[in-house]
Amino acid sequence: MSVDQGSQHVAQGRGGAEQRPGVDEVDILWISEGMSCDGDSVAVTAAAQPAIEDVVLGLVPGLPKVNLHNKVLSPTLGGEEFLAPFRAAARGAAERPFILVIEGSIPNQNIIEGDGYWTSFGNDEQTGEPLTLNWWLDQLAPKAWAVVAVGTCATYGGIHAMAGNPTGSMGLADYLGWDYRSTAGLPVVNIPGCPVQPDNFMETLTWVLFHAAGAAPPPPLDEMLRPQWIFGRTVHEGCDRAAYYEQADFAKDYNSPKCQVKVGCWGPVVNCNVPKRGWMGGIGGCPNVGGICIGCTMPGFPDKFMPFMDEPPGGSLSSVLIKPYGAFIRRMRGITNAVVNKEPKWRHNRDALTTGYDPHYRP
């Protein structure tokens, strides 16, 4: 079954055409103890469409009441007070449905010989020993209403999963299985980015919450479990430098406003909307501010995009092929530009009217 077919199945409910009833209140259990820098939690504080504060305060009409449990944003004093809803959910005693959000890549705990762990979240109440991220995933994922991976590390492994790493890190779907389904029948929802674009995350989370409320179908995901409407186009298709590529007008250094393919930009083949959406308040985004795209939203990142400053393998061929076309187009557009940069000849202050105006209907 494809993701789209699975989404339709979830929207109809397990018994046929009947819509799954919505929930009035939901917890978001956010664990950022994956192999991570907490950059995604920090990035999300900049979201505006909607702002995370608006969701938590109930200012978005139609959403269920949201209780957010995130260590960066938590109003608790930490410790056991913060861990309480996580422990209850792990025991199967959660007060309400919960969405599990994971930040950071998942290490392979099986490759450690003897004692030790890669990363942990809280301690075992009986032994005092650290509880690994893997333990929490094993307990929480089967009980979660939905599971969301935020950032490239959580979605596909990211920096920590690159060749030569000793941790065996992977993405959340690699760990749970790409056929994983939550209690609501949803696959892992992947929202990549290093860090995640804040509005991309909040927009997707809001869609999931509307689905939880029974007010929307499941979010449409592509084969890599990314939101289709966000990652369905490439950086190049939304880049304000794309016209330079078409005209074979390439930057030779990073100070140029022209297309940066020949100085290392992977935009033509990377699925990301940042040039179109910007970063904060519609401003920023890598190529928009002179940075090359290094493919940080992609499953193959970082290995398939290194060395970052080198011209992509296909860049030399495509730029050679487009060069004669681009030169011709530039010349033709230059001629047309010169023509349309001149005013029509009838705009003058002489006695005769020379616009060609002919009131032939007059006697």
Automatic annotation (TrEMBL):
Region span, Disordered: 1-20
Subcellular location(s) of the protein: Cell envelope
Domain of life: Bacteria
Claim: Ligase is one of the keywords in the record: no
Domain NADH:ubiquinone oxidoreductase-like 20kDa subunit: 37-206
Keyword Iron-sulfur: yes
Domain annotation Cytochrome-c3 hydrogenase C-terminal: ranges: 231-308
Keywords from the named record: 4Fe-4S, Iron, Iron-sulfur, Metal-binding, Oxidoreductase, Signal
Major localization listed first in the record, in broad terms: other
Pfam families noted in UniProt: NiFe_hyd_SSU_C, Oxidored_q6
Chain intervals with Polar residues compositional bias: 1-10
Cofactor(s) required, per the database record: [4Fe-4S] cluster
Family membership: Belongs to the [NiFe]/[NiFeSe] hydrogenase small subunit family.
Subunit structure and binding partners: Heterodimer of a large and a small subunit.
PANTHER family linked: HYDROGENASE SMALL SUBUNIT, NIFE / NIFESE HYDROGENASE SMALL SUBUNIT FAMILY MEMBER
The protein's name in its UniProt record: Hydrogenase small subunit
